[in-house]
Amino acid sequence: xxxxxxxxxxxxxxxxxxxxxxxxxxxxxxxxxxxxxxxxxxxxxxxxxxxxxxxxxxxxxxxxxxxxxxxxxxxxxxxxxxxxxxxxxxxxxxxxxxxxxxxxxxxxxxxxxxxxxxxxxxxxxxxxxxxxxxxxxxxxxxxxxxxxxxxxxxxxxxxxxxxxxxxxxxxxxxxxxxxxxxxxxxxxxxxxxxxxxxxxxxxxxxxxxxxxxxxxxxxxxxxxxxxxxxxxxxxxxxxxxxxxxxxxxxxxxxxxxxxxxxxxxxxxxxxxxxxxxxxxxxxxxxxxxxxxxxxxxxxxxxxxxxxxxxxxxxxxxxxxxxxxxxxxxx
Length: 330
Description:
Strand content: 5-15%
Number of strands: 6
Order of helices and strands: HHEHEHEHHHHEHHHHHEHEHH
Helix content: 40-55%
């Protein structure tokens, strides 16, 4: 935030719905998920801009689950969000409406049998997003044997460039055999929860002390909040994502593209770039018509803005300045 402010921008970094001290959402597993629909999350961002007394903003920037929200902000309200920076999660575009089905049988939805196929592998597996949508996921992490702080330390470590086994590459297809090439924090062992999955990768005390990008004090803020609230607020996002209930309203935008300047930033060691095969290619070729750069940063995994803040800040400032001037970024 400081480098962006020093470059002349007013920077606002809100917690998203379901996280931290936010209100206006249902934390009950059996409660109402409607507030977590993507278009309502776009409304949250739009309402914040309005509440702060602005009609437009130079850019909306989103990391991880913030990335699809930022993408939809730029797609739905390009008059307000005049450019977009996506981080770690490529945007492949709105869900398509079935085409020409009056004369042809509609194709079977992709991935319909993926969960059965994963479970039938020689090493039975499951997809982390669908695990996060289960009733058990919150308690598995909130009441895990190692405690919330240690769980989060191992989780941050194993998804970072500090974990040497993170060497991502493009996958050929959305198939069980291909998905199973990802680490177990993405394609989990069928019988293990997430806390048990990351526990064997807990960094040593020396590694923790040497971690410049996430101190124990900083992690203590996160672990303290999650210990207080539990994880269900964040897990509700996965339930909306995996149930597919919002696809119908998102199909209103089928065929629409992001036509404001855009950029993509991720860590070179982040599997998130490739977890949905073909997404990063579709983002560049179809979904974003004014893509000004795709940057995969050395020495960073999933937490790119924390692991390599100087490089991320440099790229963002350059992008914001070029997007504001109408010139292409270098």
